[in-house]
Amino acid sequence: MKKYLIDSAEKVNINNNDYYLRFRSQNSSNPVVLFLHGGCGAADRPFIMKWNSELAGYATIVAWDQRGAGLAYSRKMAKTEVLTKDLYINDLHNVVQYLKKRFNKEKIILVGHSFGSQLGVWYIQKFPEDVECYVGIGQVVDAVRNEAISFEFTLNEAKKRNDKRAIKALQKIGPPVNGFYKDDKMLLQRNYLNKMGGILYGKYGNSVINTLPKIPCMFKEYSFWTMLTYVSANEYCLSQPLGQEKVDFLNEVKELSVPVYLFMGKYDYNTVSELAREWLENLEAPHKEFFEFEKSGHTPQWEEADKFNKLFVKQVLKVK
Questions:
Q1: Torsion of CA 145, 302, 291, 316, to 10 degrees
Q2: Residues 281-306: pLDDT tens digits?
Q3: How far, in Å, CA of 162 to CA of 92, rounded?
Q4: What residues does each domain of the chain span?
Q5: Three-class secondary structure assignment of 24-93
Q6: Sign of the torsion formed by the C-alpha atoms of 154, 160, 161 and 162
Q7: What fold, for 6-142+247-316?
Q8: Per residue in 208-262, pLDDT tens?
Q9: Can you give the three-state secondary structure of the chain, one letter per residue?
Q10: Which of 101, 129, 171, 262 is deepest in the core (most CB within 10 A)?
Q11: What's the CA gap between 72 and 40, in Å, rounded?
């Protein structure tokens, strides 16, 4: 097992708020890379530590369980806490300022995956001076168009396979209206999307089956109780005003003042790759690059981890 100068899980109190951070680094003077997870309640520290620890040789990598997710979720809190965009941006600001001070950095690198890519872009709009560059994975761009494309793909694939149960369920849900599904059935649509191969490349089955291989690495980071509440945390976050935010970055975000790198899976129909490419092509930024992963869906950083890590080190960290 590789040894690291820093390899810790910490609860840090910042401005009277507790933040759950996971650190890994071989040199504290290296750039700081903060990962923002998706969901918006699907904390990803176990997967980062398992598949992206190679980056810790070149950067200080930090995984953060955002408010209401992973270690930062409790059923008691969920009964009263209202999660909003402004609250999350404030939380992120607190974490970024802490990291800058702790590691003596003027700026850090932000990496946003799925919902985390919304949060990352929101943050850069407000605090660009804190960010050295931005990396979007499974980049959210246009919620309305994204859901229309995602639903159409799922239904068409179900028809190709003559999956009558899926066809019936999807037709009952119906196409999304303004990015929203009837009776908040997004998770059900995503389960069928997963079954049709639109989330993980070459993997077909329900979300439970596709999650099973990840469980051993999750137990390295989380207790049995946290594992039990993991799904509840995601459902809670999605039900909050934060989870109902529908972005349109094509029209709302036409310029960012930091370098932008997008890492997208070719077969991603959770956050549609073609929309991310369209956004980047029209975005004004000091530098921008698009990297497509031929054997990935929504999570190229884990589906093609070796390729992702090497590209990140060379293209983002500029290590030759």
A1: 120
A2: 999 999 999 999 999 999 999 999 99
A3: 45
A4: 6-142+247-316
A5: EECCCCCCEEEEECCCCCCCCHHHHHHHCHHHHHCCEEEEEECCCCHHHCCHHHHCCCCCCHHHHHHHHH
A6: positive
A7: Rossmann fold (3.40.50)
A8: 445 545 667 787 888 888 888 888 898 899 889 998 899 999 999 999 999 999 9
A9: CCCCCEEEEEEEEECCEEEEEEEEECCCCCCEEEEECCCCCCCCHHHHHHHCHHHHHCCEEEEEECCCCHHHCCHHHHCCCCCCHHHHHHHHHHHHHHHHHHCCCCCEEEEEECHHHHHHHHHHHHCHHHEEEEEEECCCCEHHHHHHHHHHHHHHHHHHCCCHHHHHHHHHHCCCECCECHHHCHHHHHHHHHHCCCCCCCCCCCHHHHHHHHHHHHHCCCCHHHHHHHHHHHHHHHHCHHHHCCCEHHHHCCECCCCEEEEEECCCCCCCHHHHHHHHHHCECCCEEEEEECCCCCCHHHHCHHHHHHHHHHHHCCCC
A10: 262
A11: 13
Sign of the C-alpha dihedral computed for residues 296, 85, 147 and 165 taken in this order: positive
Backbone angles phi, psi at 151, to 5 degrees: -65, -45
Q: Give me the mean pLDDT over the 52-65 stretch.
A: 97
Q: Tell whether the model's pLDDT for residue 267 goes beyond 50.
A: yes
Which two three-digit tokens encode residue 297? 């869906």
Round to whole Å and give the CA distance between 132 and 124: 10
Phi (first) and psi of residue 132, to 5 degrees: -75, -45
Cα gap 200→184, rounded to integer Å: 23
